[in-house]
Amino acid sequence: MIVMRLGRVAKLALLAGTVSTCATNPATGGHMFSLISEGQEIEMGREADASIVAQMGVVEDTALQRYVSDLGLRLARSSERPNLPWTFRVVDDPIINAFALPGGYIYISRGILAHFNSEAELASVLGHEIGHVTARHSVQQLSKQQLGQIGLGVAQIAAPQLGQFLGVAAAGLELLFLKFSRDDENQADRLGLRYMRRGGYDPREMVKVYQMLERVSAASGSRVPDWQSTHPNPVDRQERINAGVAAIPADSVGGLVRRPEYLSRVDGIVFGDDPRQGYFKDARFYHPDLRFQMEFPAGWRTVNTRQLVGATSPQEDAQIVLTAHPGATPDSAANAFFGHQAVDGRPQRLQIHGLAAVEGPFTAQTQSGQVVSGAAAFIAHRGLVYEIVGIATQAAWRTQQGPVTATLRSFAPLSDPAILGVQPDRLDVVRVDRDATLVEFARRYPGPVSVHALAVMNNVDSTATLPRSSLVKRVVGRPLP
User: Fold this and answer.
1) Secondary structure class of 287 (helix, strand, coil)
2) What is the pLDDT of residues 205-223, one digit of tens each?
3) CA neighbours within 13 Å on the CB side: how many for 317?
4) Residue 448: what pLDDT?
């Protein structure tokens, strides 16, 4: 999967007349259609990398980041494009995913790391993403202008006409998604096998990755991208990879697996959503790290990202978005908002739960000419100014004004020690001291996830027997207060 800025893509289109359209694919040696030079490709990836890091964050584990980066660089330097500025990051995202930006920027989520069971499995996915870059799949798709919208797993919370007015990145990065063809995905699989073998890893371990993805896809309510729509079916990929492995001479099959070494690296990694970054309990939102809380209208659809917290009404005619701004005061932030030429409103200073604030109703005109109504509050708390903006269509404002205003004025400092002290669930790797079924293991080592979830993350059947001395992943943690 590849993401990038729309504005950058538009600029590239203007360069079409100055870049050769006939090029050689570095990974395959075949001809390819390209309007984008390698220098432009690298620049696009570098620009988008900053947005990815800001939106998703990176896991604050220097040893884990270095481990993944060192492995990725070793594979990439054995590829057909060793001199790209290869960059590998573990992003702080619980969704099971991996993706690449043009120019050699590759991202692995902590969610997918928690579901790998060997270094060879990690190498296979890194190799797959390296393959997308070396084969210049994104460049080909860009050159053909096959563009589609991406949400990066985050629900869209703003009606387009409202989001355009506020300039709020309601879906996150305002990036575009390039859907690779199934041929591209299958080619990246073949290249991933190539790079695994060059790195000395057992190519048969790639099959286990797609077995795991199939289990995750089949799991009810799993937080995984729709692999069926943007990727070939995991079962089909298993068959193709098995065929690819079968074509390898028998004396060449095998190699590194490094299961214990890998599991020691992910032992203790955060599993699932990190409540330190904020969490909802019904309609109330708590942010332990930033030490604030607020109440959203009951029944509204909510979303929490690193850059905003928001909600949209069931009728999708109103929304509330909270963002934070360093280096501002409530007055300066309010002046910037209400001073916009499209906004008509008169804010006033007040105290909200003992915090200095500026608040006021407003009307505004969207880019499409629609008039909307709303209210905005700017609240100082612990060195940041929190901007809370609620808007609705004029027809809906009469009924939505009360809930929106109540939400703005619900912002308050958080002082409950139990909530301030919440910790995320984490992986815990256990060496079993005797043969045990997975059910027996779960009974002996209780935790917050089901037996089925344990089966998925360990890539075994729910009825499996775990041999004595085997390493098994579980999840440890306490319920949120």
Assistant:
1) strand
2) 998 998 898 888 777 554 4
3) 13
4) 96
What integer pLDDT is reported at residue 423 of this predicted model? 97
Q: Is the dihedral of CA 34, 40, 42, 46 positive or negative?
A: negative
The more confidently predicted of residues 228 and 335 is 335
Residue 34 predicted with pLDDT over 70:
no
Q: Enumerate the β-bridge partners of residue 393.
A: 372
Task: Categorize the per-residue pLDDT at 185 as very low, low, confident or very high, splitting at 50, 70 and 90.
Answer: confident
Condensed to tens digits (0 to 9), the pLDDT of residues 379-410 reads: 999 999 999 999 999 999 999 999 999 999 99
Most confident of 63-72, 149-158, 364-373: 63-72
Q: Residue with structure tokens 């870049």?
A: 19
Residue identified by tokens 């009924």 is: 399
H-helix or E-strand spanning residue 431: strand 426-431
**AA letter at 171:** A
**CATH number for the segment(s) 275-420:** 3.40.1000.10
Give the separation between CA 145 and CA 9, rounded to whole angstroms. 9
Distance CA 437, CA 463 (A): 7
- How confident is the model over 259-286, as a mean pLDDT? 97
DSSP 305-345: -SS-EEEE-TTSSEEEEEEEEET--HHHHHHHHHTSTTEEE
CA distances from 155 to 301, 304, 335 (A): 9, 9, 30
- For tokens 């990190």, the residue is 274
How many other β-carbons are positioned within 10 Å of the β-carbon of residue 438? 20
Write the CA distances from 164 to 25, 158, 215, 364, 369, integer angstroms: 39, 9, 39, 12, 11
CA 69 to chain centre: 18
33, 140 contact by CB (below 8 A): yes
Average pLDDT value for residue range 332-353: 94
CA dist 335 and 314 (Å) reads 31
Which residue's structure tokens are 């509330």? 320
Distance, in Å, from the CA atom of 53 to the CA atom of 3, rounded to the nearest integer, reads 12
Measure the CA–CA gap between 122 and 109, rounded to whole angstroms.
Answer: 11
